[in-house]
Structures are given as structure tokens and as C-alpha cells.
Design brief:
Blueprint lengths: L1 E6 L9 H18 L3 E4 L13 H11 L4 E4 L2 E2 L5 H14 L4 E6 L6 H7 L6 H17 L3 E4 L4 E4 L13 E6 L2 H10 L3 E3 L4 H17 L4 H9 L2 E8 L3 H30 L15 H4 E4 L1 H14 L3 E5 L7 H23 L1
Parallel strand pairs: 1-2, 1-12, 2-3, 3-5, 4-5, 5-8, 8-9, 9-10, 10-11, 10-12
Antiparallel strand pairs: 6-7
């Protein structure tokens, strides 16, 4: 099981944007120095939920300021991007990083209408735009004299430059918030990113993911490779003791959840609009499912339960809400020095 840091820094005050962005660069460099496997980047606009806003620009900064850690998107909202511009940008970052890029794509947010309104996109078009754009990007990376005429894009170009460093193109992975979307990736024999779910739901989906691939005729080596490239999301905090971890993490986690929920309520109050109706409390809002918190021993026990399920890696948010950088950095160091080695020894 691989480990990653999901750099998802909130800036709850616009005057603090520069500080939070600078600290997030330091956080990424710390993870690189400590030998973590991956960094993941988010994309959210106009609300402060993700301070650096644009994962493409931030990925380029990380590619030039880190040495070995891989960099991925969880995810780029493809409905907001021109596919050829995105293909060029991904090829460039793939070259700068010398093949450390994972292109994680999604349809777009299911919660913030501001993202779509700010870019002049109808959210009802988001999934179709994703599918069409992904196809365009792959063909632009791998063919010459490419032409495409589809529902949203009419494109013709001789040769996309620069050519990708990774052959035939950078790794692509899709985010799947629903079981139905996950099954689509299983039928295509592709890895996926799973949003925050309970361990019970995570196990159900991973078992179904393997079974569906087998039913579709994929061999065990392909299934194992896809599982190895599938990641699931949790929040995390490691302290010296359980009591210290709870004291430092729980208020920050609760503030983070309140901040995000307030934004959704603000949109509804202004516009009477919800992009997604939820009839039950989602796992992301339940700390027993969403947050791994405690001493190195306690967190290791929680991770072992997920490891039994069989996933490729964990997308871990270390810096929660308004948590000071130094507090999050200490949690990362404890994790990499006292938790991660337990699983590295097991793998060996």
C-alpha cells in the first residue's frame, strides 16, 4: 500500500492566500524529502476551499521544486479545461518532472455552482465534456495530423508539442464518487480514485471492482496492476499520543467541515440551487469514517484494516482546515518515520 499527501489547503481569509500557498509548497517539499510516494492536487475556484485553485500551475511549480515524488490530480475538473491546452500543459509538466505525473481527471464539482458559473459552463454538460476531452487528449498525445469533430470541440492540429516524456502518454486515472462510475472503470480495465467512504463500503467496492474485471475477461496480472494504481481518500493526523492527536486534529477537522458546509448553504441561500441532493450524512462528514487520528500505533492499526481490503494507495489529507503548517508538518514527519515503515517492512 502506497502513501500520498493530498495537498488540499483551505484559505478561510483571502488575505492569507499567499501564506497558505507558500506553506503548501513547503509541505510538498517536506514529503519529497521524507520519501513519500505521491502528492495529489485538487481544483476548486472562488471559495477558498483550495488555496492554490489551479492544479496545473501548481503541479508545474512542484515538478520544478521536488526531485522524486510523483504528482497527480485528484482531480482536474475537465469540464473547465480546453482539452488541447490541457494536453500541452500535461506534456510539458511530464517533461519537467521526467515522468512523475499522473493525470487524474473528473467531471467537475458536484457541490459548487460558482466553478461552473465562473467559467460559463453548464454543469449538466460536465460528464460529456470529460469523456470527449479525455479522448481528445489521448489522441493528441499519440497521433499526428489529429482532427476531431464532436459535440463540444472541433479541432485540427498537425503535431502536439512537446511530446510526452512518458510513452505513449502520462498515466490517466478517473475519480469515481459513485459505485456506478467505478463499475465503468472496471469494465474498461482502468484504475480509479475513490472518494471518502467507510471501510465497509471501500471493501464492497474493491471486491466488486475485482469481480467485474474478472467477469469482463481481464487476467489476474492486469487486475493486480489496476488495483495497484487505485487510490482511496482519508483525512489523517498523527500525534505523539492519542490525546495529543485528538486535541490538535479534531477542532481543525470540525472547522474544515463547517467551512465547506457553509459554502454550500451560501450558494443555496443566494440561488436556491443544489448540484447534489444528499439524503444521508456522507462518510466525508463522519469522523469515524473520514479521519484516521491518533498515536503512530493507533494510526497503524487503522491503516492495517484498510490494507486488508487491498487497495493500491491512500490519498491522505494531513493539513486539516485552519491547522498551522508546523502542526501538520510534525504529523507528516511522525507518519513517515513511525507509521509508513511498518507497512514498508510488511511489503518487503
Amino acid at each position: 500500500m502506497k502513501f500520498s499527501n493530498f495537498l488540499f489547503p483551505a484559505s478561510m481569509d483571502a488575505s492569507k492566500d499567499h501564506q497558505v500557498i507558500s506553506e503548501t509548497l513547503r509541505e510538498a517539499q517536506l514529503c519529497d524529502e521524507l520519501g513519500m510516494d505521491m502528492l495529489w492536487l485538487a481544483e476548486h475556484h472562488f471559495d477558498g476551499i483550495c488555496a492554490y485553485v489551479d492544479p496545473v500551475t501548481f503541479a508545474a511549480a512542484l515538478a520544478s521544486s521536488t526531485k522524486q515524488i510523483h504528482i497527480g490530480f485528484a482531480v482536474a475538473q475537465m469540464s473547465l479545461h480546453h482539452p488541447i491546452r490541457m494536453a500541452e500543459q500535461m506534456a510539458l509538466i511530464d517533461n519537467i518532472s521526467q515522468g512523475r505525473l499522473v493525470v487524474g481527471l473528473g467531471r467537475g464539482t458536484a457541490y459548487n455552482i460558482y466553478d461552473y458559473q465562473g467559467y460559463g459552463i453548464d454543469p449538466k454538460e460536465a460528464y460529456e465534456r470529460l469523456v470527449e476531452s479525455e479522448d481528445i487528449m489521448i489522441k493528441a498525445w499519440t497521433t499526428e495530423n489529429f482532427a476531431h469533430k464532436g459535440k463540444y470541440w472541433d479541432i485540427k492540429l498537425p503535431l502536439l508539442r512537446p511530446r510526452p516524456y512518458t510513452k505513449p502518454h502520462p498515466a490517466i486515472v478517473r475519480a469515481c464518487s459513485s459505485e456506478e462510475a467505478m463499475l465503468g472503470m472496471a469494465r474498461e480495465g482502468r484504475p480509479f480514485l475513490m472518494n471518502i467512504q467507510s471501510n465497509e463500503v471501500t471493501k464492497h467496492r474493491m471486491d466488486l471492482y475485482r469481480k467485474t474485471q474478472r467477469d469482463c475477461g481481464f487476467d489476474e496480472a492486469t487486475i493486480a496492476r489496476n488495483v495497484d494504481n487505485t487510490w482511496v481518500w482519508r483525512n489523517i493526523f498523527v500525534g505523539e499520543t492519542d490525546a495529543e492527536a485528538e486535541r490538535l486534529a479534531l477542532p481543525a477537522f470540525e472547522t474544515q467541515q463547517t467551512f465547506r458546509e457553509a459554502m454550500r448553504k451560501k450558494v443555496y441561500a443566494e440561488q436556491g440551487l443544489l448540484l447534489k441532493q444528499e439524503t444521508t450524512t456522507p462518510a466525508r462528514n463522519q469522523k469515524q469514517h473520514s479521519l484516521l487520528c491518533g498515536s503512530p500505533a493507533t494510526v497503524s492499526e487503522a491503516l492495517a484494516e484498510i490494507d486488508k481490503i487491498g487497495v493500491g494507495g491512500l490519498i491522505l489529507v494531513f493539513r486539516l482546515g485552519p491547522m498551522p503548517y508546523e502542526v501538520a508538518a510534525n504529523s507528516i514527519e511522525l507518519f513517515m518515520k513511525k507509521v509508513a515503515p511498518e507497512f514498508q517492512r510488511k511489503a518487503a
